[in-house]
Amino acid sequence: MGKTVSNWFSMKTMLRLPLLLLLVSFANLSFGQVEIHDWTNKGGRTIKAKFVSGDASTVTIFLNGRNFVLKLSDLSEESQALARKLSVPPPSPPPSPAQPPSSSEPEPSPVPPTGKPAATGGKFVLPTLGSGKWANYHSVLETSTHDVALHGSGVFHLYLKEGSENLLQGKPLVLNFNHGYYSKPHPKGSVYAYHTTRSDYHYHYRKITGFYNPPEPSEKLGRLKLKAKLEDDVTMEIEFEAGSRRIAIWGKADDPSSVDHPTVVALRLSVPEAMPVKEGDGLAEWEPIVDDTSIEVVASSRAKETIPYLEKWVDLKKKLSFSRGIESAVTAGKLLGRREMTVAPKSIRNSSMQVGSYSGVFPFQHYRYYYQDKAGGEIDKNRRLEIEIK
Predict the structure, then answer these.
(1) Considering the domain boundaries, does residue 267 fall inside one?
(2) 70-79, 164-173, 338-347 — most confident range
(3) H/E run at residue 11
(4) What does pTM read for this prediction?
(5) Tell me: the pLDDT tens digits for 157-188?
(6) Is residue 172 a part of any domain in this protein?
(7) Which of 44, 41, 58 is nearest to 6 (CA)?
(8) Fewer CB near the terminus (10 Å): N or C of the chain?
(9) Which of 87, 103, 122 is the last residue of a domain?
(10) b/e map 179-210, b = 16+ CB within 10 Å
């Protein structure tokens, strides 16, 4: 195996397995529930990771927000057999565009820097355009700086671009609401709206089951007002505006009288991996590619702080205050070409925003912005979340 993957199986890494497993759990929170398998090398050391793909000599697994390619010859006989079993395509033909594979949330996958949008999954709950480049989307707006589209699964995708070239490997930023309820108070009193059920916190996610009278699919996405059907007969009102430079979103949940536990909501903007990973590479290879790419934030303390893409979160949190909340964030630098992306609520009144990572080093891992009313309630128009692209 390459140096990076071999390190996973070293004794030093085995001592850090609890941390790795925690990171895996965070990655699963970002991409929904996935099946995790045990992978054992010939030395008897085991890690847990998602199967991605396989061929006659290798298997690709997903761990800690990254894809890794392992040689079958380096794995135990049991893991080799598992890889071959999972690599066999299903006997049934792939679903038609009108019936995509079902999963709890779209998962970005790499694509060439130009051309068709990154492939995404997710159960369709909206009518779609049905053909062409945006076949799996309900509506889309293409601009000179970005493309924004509402996927048939009910989440918004934002593709940053520079001319005809897509940035971030052609992967979308994913923007959507979290909505759920607490059957009992959170052990620490939190009203955090997760995007998956957390029984350890007495939190239950309410899935979107459909939409009431959605507008017709369109290639001229502008302003949308949607009414989503959630489980337990809860409705979620979502309002969205898209333009050539700015995107805005706000909304609220409406609980019927029959609901025993009120719905808490939050907005989440997930940013994908920023660059491909090559085994054995390190700072010497990364620095020329990443260069000055960073996030400039205004922390809740009013301090202006820089989060460089090449520094570890654990180190930054020791000297910066951004982990306690931010008021705005601007991402810019070499990885974004000439683009500059600002994420900020219209007003921070009675609300809070955070930026968090699921990894140690930035260029290879996704991160997310999380915005919520402090009581978990409505995000009104006056406090809408705005994304500006220059």
Answers:
(1) no
(2) 338-347
(3) helix 11-15
(4) 0.71
(5) 999 999 878 898 899 999 999 999 999 999 99
(6) no
(7) 41
(8) C
(9) 87
(10) bbbbeeeeeeeebbbbbbebeebebbbbbbee
